[in-house]
């Protein structure tokens, strides 16, 4: 099963573009936070990771999402691209 749920804050407003078939594709940057507990002190620790760049196909969410909103959630499948120089 390949199912991913990301919950975080948007780093920018979604960039929406359209295919030749007029289907919307939104590119979204979302910052996620990892929450863990320090083993020695038991103290809660939050670490904000890098922005995740996501593409949402057949998007109907472009206007509903905007930078500065509280939390946003994306659900879908993961497909990774590896870039090398």
List keywords for this structure.
85 residues; mainly beta; OB fold (Dihydrolipoamide Acetyltransferase, E2P); five-stranded antiparallel sheet; 52% strand
Description:
- The chain starts with a strand and ends in a 9-residue tail after the last strand.
- It is mostly beta strands and 85 residues long.
- Strands 1, 2, 3, 4 and 5 form a five-stranded antiparallel sheet that branches.
- It contains no helices and five strands.
- It is 0% helix and 52% strand.
The CATH architecture category equals: Beta Barrel
Radius of gyration: 16 Å
- Let me know the number of strands: 5
Assembly level:
single chain
What would the principal axes of the Cα set say about the shape? elongated
Describe the largest sheet. 5 strands, antiparallel
Q: What is the fold named in CATH at topology level?
A: OB fold (Dihydrolipoamide Acetyltransferase, E2P)
Q: Helical content, roughly? A: under 10%
Low-confidence stretches: none
- Give the SSE string: EEEEE
CATH class equals: Mainly Beta
Cα distance spanning the termini: 31 Å
CATH superfamily: Nucleic acid-binding proteins
The class by helix and strand makeup works out as: mainly beta
Query: Into how many domains do the coordinates divide?
Result: 1
Mean residue pLDDT: 81
**Portion in beta strands:** over 45%
What is the helix tally?
0
């Amino acid at each position: 099963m390949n199912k991913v749920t990301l919950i975080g804050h948007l780093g920018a407003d979604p960039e929406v573009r359209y295919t030749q078939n007029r289907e919307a594709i939104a590119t979204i940057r979302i910052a996620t936070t990892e929450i863990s507990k320090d083993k020695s002190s038991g103290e809660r620790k939050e670490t904000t990771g890098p922005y995740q760049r996501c593409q949402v196909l057949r998007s109907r969410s472009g206007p509903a999402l905007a930078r500065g909103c509280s939390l946003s959630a994306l659900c879908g499948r993961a497909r990774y691209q590896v870039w090398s120089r």
